[in-house]
Amino acid sequence: MPSSDALVSGILWSAVTIGAYLVARALYARWHHWALSPLLVAPLVVLAFAFAAKVGYAPYIEGTHWLMLALGPATVAFALPIYEHRMMIRKHWPVLVIGVVVGSSIAMLSAWGLAAAFGLSDTLRLSLLPRSMSMPFALIVSDDIGGTPDLTAVFVVVTAVIGIAIGDVLLKWMPVRSSIARGSLFGMGAHGAGVAKATEIGGEEGSIAGLVMILSGVTNVLAAPLLVLLLN
């Protein structure tokens, strides 16, 4: 049973986190720029509050861990748009599966290779490996393979923000007309945040992005432990 102080702290930091997200979401809805992504702005706002209040990471995460638990059910909600566009997905499933396998392999191998090239520790390498999965998948894989889930969560957020920024540039400068290609780009490169961005472009793009995100998560969950064994 948590103490009254812990309960108050949990309510306070949960309110700060949700409030920061709502403000960031309103800013992004107004200007639609990747630098105003709630994934980037909200953590910076929370971090500023934490520094001002001189609160460490442990008390914060203890009071807001329920928000992490809510990520699982939130991910399931992506099944609805996938169902609505099931006929298109059924028609193009071979290319989607190939894209997911190739994209997942490149994401994990590049993360491991760059970490090795820069001489990062084994813990950092293993924490980086699941960076291209949606958060619920990434935290599970990180824990299973010996990484640090808290670090992995940071890498996932950074990957999502960079993925959206690069995706915007690619779509602006490359003549990509296919809804499957646009949706796959964001679903593979920026997972959950990418799905939201793809949905802004169109319903089909959002559905494809959601499917790619889920398929890549399942693929990575199955492949990451095996990959670690091979690399070691």
Provide a descriptive summary of the structure in words.
With 232 residues, the chain is mainly α. It folds into 2 domains: 1-69, no CATH class; 70-231, no CATH class. The chain has helices spanning 4-31, 38-53, 57-69, 71-76, 79-84, 86-91, 93-117, 122-128, 135-145, 149-173, 179-201, 203-231. The longest helix has 29 residues, at 203-231. The chain is globular. The relative contact order is 0.12.
How would you sum up this structure in a few lines?
With 232 residues, the chain is mainly α. The chain has helices spanning 4-31, 38-53, 57-69, 71-76, 79-84, 86-91, 93-117, 122-128, 135-145, 149-173, 179-201, 203-231. The chain has two domains: 1-69, no CATH class; 70-231, no CATH class.
Give the total of domains.
2
Tell me which oligomeric state these chains represent.
single chain
- Mean pLDDT across the residues is 85
The radius of gyration is: 18 Å
Alpha plus pi helix count: 12
| Overall form | globular
The counted number of beta strands is 0
Largest beta-sheet details: none
The percentage of residues in β strands lies in under 5%
Order of helices and strands: HHHHHHHHHHHH
| Amino- and carboxy-terminal Cα gap | 42 Å
Are there runs of 5+ residues with pLDDT below 50, and where? none
Query: What structural class is derived from the secondary structure elements?
Result: mainly alpha
Q: Portion of residues in helices? A: over 70%
